[in-house]
Amino acid sequence: MITLDPQFITDKKGEKIAVVLPIGDFKAIIEELEELEEIKLYDEAQNSNEVSIPIDEAFKMIEAKRKAE
Fold it and tell me: What is the pLDDT of residues 1-27, one digit of tens each?
């Protein structure tokens, strides 16, 4: 779990309107979000009824299509 040390920017009423994070915290959040997106896509692929093919075969099919164009 990421431990954050945010700073807040407030408006004249004292309401929080923005957050300032150290760059390291920001990068850690982005990495976590990217990993979560990959997990989500993996889960969706696993739950779909589509036939899957090995990655090597997929690359061969893509290359063949490129050469044919």
Answer: 788 889 999 999 999 999 999 999 999
